[in-house]
């Protein structure tokens, strides 16, 4: 997959969720697809993630959640990005997120939600589509 510029992706883990195997797997897959990936590590606040996104001048932020706090943390992250001047940075998410909650998250402006079973190829394809606008 080729890009006109190398996309910078921030993969984040917020809240008390310490399970990061999936986030690391996606980070490696995106890197292997030609993207530059920054991984925050676990237990970050939404404020920290937003500030890192701005400082690192990323093109997109991915939030991995397995804790069940998605309906709280996605809105907080989007608000934090807006408060720090990064309201134009698209956000996507992945993890254990019930299908019934996905419409709400999309209505907030989350660009895509990837649930268990989504192929890496589909994640890469969708991120590329989001970045191309």
CATH topology: Rossmann fold
Largest sheet: spatial strand order: 2-1-3-4-5
Strand proportion: 15-25%
CATH superfamily: Cobalamin-binding domain
* CA-based shape: globular
Q: Count of helices?
A: 5
H/E topology pattern? EHEHEHEHEH
The span between the termini is: 16 Å
**Under the CATH scheme, which class?**
Alpha Beta
Largest sheet: 5 strands, parallel
Total domain modules? 1
Detailed description of the structure:
Helix 2 crosses helix 3 (70-83). With 133 residues, the chain is α/β, with parallel strands linked by helices. Strand 3, helix 3 (70-83) and strand 4 (91-95) form a beta-alpha-beta unit. The protein is built from five helices and five strands. The radius of gyration is 13 Å and the shape is globular. The mean pLDDT is 93. 42% of the residues lie in helices and 18% in strands. The chain has a single domain (8-132), classed as Cobalamin-binding domain (Rossmann fold), CATH 3.40.50. Strands 2-1-3-4-5 form a five-stranded parallel sheet, sandwiched between helices. The chain starts with 7 loop residues before the first strand and ends with a helix.
């Amino acid at each position: 997959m080729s890009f006109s510029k190398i996309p910078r992706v921030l993969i984040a883990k917020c809240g008390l969720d310490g399970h990061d195997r999936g986030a690391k797997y996606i980070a490696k897959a995106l890197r292997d697809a030609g993207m530059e990936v920054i991984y925050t590590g676990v237990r970050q606040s939404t404020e920290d993630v937003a500030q890192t996104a701005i400082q690192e001048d990323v093109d997109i932020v991915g939030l991995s959640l397995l804790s069940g706090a998605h309906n709280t943390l996605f809105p907080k992250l989007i608000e934090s990005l807006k408060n720090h001047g990064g309201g134009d940075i698209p956000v996507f998410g992945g993890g254990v997120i019930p299908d019934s909650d996905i419409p709400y998250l999309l209505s907030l402006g989350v660009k895509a939600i990837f649930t268990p079973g989504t192929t890496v190829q589909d994640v890469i394809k969708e991120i590329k589509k989001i970045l191309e606008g």
